[in-house]
Amino acid sequence: MASSSRSNFASLALPVLVILSSLGPRPAASALVQEQPLVLKYHNGPLLKGNVTLNLLWYGAFSPAQRSVILDFLHSLSATATSPPPSVSSWWRTTARYKGGPSNLAVGVQILDESYSLGKSLQMGQLAALASKAGYKSIKTRALAINLVLTSTDVAIDGFCMSRCGTHGSGAAGKAKFTYAWVGNAVSQCPGQCAWPFHQPQYGPQTPPLVAPNGDVGVDGMVINLATVLAGAVTNPFNNGYYQGVAGAPLEAVSACTGIFGKGAYPGYPGQVLVDKTTGASYNAIGVNGRKFLLPAMWDRKTSACETLV
């Protein structure tokens, strides 16, 4: 999978797939069948714990307003200032219940690639090569980092919409391992899959879409998928952390809880969430600068259940 133009990478691990957000939670078991508990087994591998830097590569055309929404979300994850409940940081603290304690995220290097240096149609190996550009220093110094590639609406990615809304994976530069993640803006390609519940679902039960909290269906959908891949990256960075199923297609901290955003969720219905009285937008978390977001449920190691903020 390694890009041939990046010979300094000795190997690239297979990426972890993020299941489409529109698939919804698993249906409730019937009264005659006892549903098996959801358990993410720990496979004895290293996790990303302590101080972790998020290096960003913006690939394609993002407006300042779009970057602001995503940056506010990332800054909210480990914010020291207390946001009103329910807060983004309280959602992220669930990852601290996994072995090794908290993962404190901070935004590091940002690179704008508005010239589409590798074109507008990318393979997975090229995403890893792009991620290395943002995190080259951290790779050399072996600092804990996640190198994020964020692609704009007009960039096609191998498997995007068909099997994934985002992904995270790992690679190696010499003896140093690194982790990377990618999320794309799906608003013009598959909003019914990768920006649900802010768009009518492409498949399954048809329920009215929710109003996006930041007024941007594509970017608010990206936040949901960013939350999914980041939680997976810190709790299963090298395919031997916490997951259920097989390592090549694992159910992870958030992807195990697909489609659940509030109490009472079921396939096609995201659950009961909060609604802004002024804008009518739906949300369940508040971050820095009073920014509102809709975040998916996360598997809680203490309760062995998918927990929501509301």
Summarize the topology:
Layout: E1 11-12, E2 16-17, E3 41-42, E4 50-59, H1 64-77, H2 88-92, E5 103-113, E6 121-122, H3 124-134, H4 136-141, E7 145-151, E8 156-157, E9 166-173, E10 176-184, H5 191-194, H6 217-235, E11 242-243, E12 274-275, E13 282-283, E14 285-286, E15 292-293, E16 298-300, E17 305-307
Parallel strand pairs: 4-5, 4-7, 6-8, 7-10
Antiparallel strand pairs: 1-9, 2-9, 3-11, 9-10, 12-13, 14-15, 16-17
Report what the structure shows.
- By secondary structure, the protein is an alpha/beta fold.
- It is built from 6 helices and 17 strands.
- The longest helix has 19 residues.
- It is globular, with a radius of gyration of 18 Å.
- The termini are far apart.
- 49% of the residues are buried.
Structural class, by secondary structure, is alpha/beta
- State the distance separating the first and last CA atoms: 40 Å
Shape: globular
**Count of discrete alpha- or pi-helical segments spanning 4 or more residues:** 6
Helix percentage range: 10-25%
Name a few traits of the molecule.
single chain, 7-stranded mixed sheet, disordered N terminus, 6 helices, alpha/beta, 23% strand, 310 residues, two-stranded antiparallel ribbon
